[in-house]
Amino acid sequence: MAQAALLTPANHADAAPEIVLSVRDVTVGFGEKLVLDKLSLDVYRGEILGFVGASGTGKSVLLRTVLGLTPKRGGTVTLFGNDLDTISDEEKVQIDMRLGVLFQHGALFSALTVRENIQVPMREYLDLPKPLMDELALLKLELVGLPRDAADKFPSELSGGMIKRAALARALALDPDLVFLDEPTSGLDPIGAADFDDLVAKLRDTMGLTVYMVTHDLDSLFSVCDRIAVLGGKKVLMEGTIEDMMTVEDPWVKSYFRGKRARHIDLSARKNKA
Question: How far apart are CA 196 and CA 190, in angstroms?
Fold first, then answer.
């Protein structure tokens, strides 16, 4: 079966896009179970890529493999033109500083305040005086739409939506080029999820971010994702826009995007919006 069966996204058709993340023939397994089998995927600078697939197919496994948290059995992962298997430890640190991660459920440290959570990457990678880190943390809070007085609260004192935003502020602590979002709207009510999607789109446009979003949220896929990649059969089955997905006859893709619980999509309105 050919991988990535659909078209290169239309907004990249006229010029060769810059690839910030390239995954080639990556294989990952646990014991005798193979989760990813020679999977390949590119992520282009400035896009919001939605990565979807049935539960348990390996979406988060791929994300963790790219981040170096899960070992691979074969293939290559290239970030910003650097093969992660061949670069030095110092070069790896420089690349890590260009990445931001929002893990599912936020993954904030419960014993730290919001301010201290945001400062974790600063303390790990930078040597800054405390007053400067304090001010930077407040700026990141404002960037994600949280009030400054949230800085001294603990995660247990925050709502689910505030936890997501605080975790996003931490992901943005070092002004990254590429941000990974793992199920960023899970657990949020529809209004909160829509607001979070709008925030992600705004940050992409104002900060020039590239966003890799693992999600099940059809509204997110429709409203903010430039391109969608579908994981199935341990590989990327197909890639394309939401409009492309509406024409696919693969049984799972058809059920997901055009099934009983799928959102009705007015393609003409989306084109006019673009």
Answer: 10
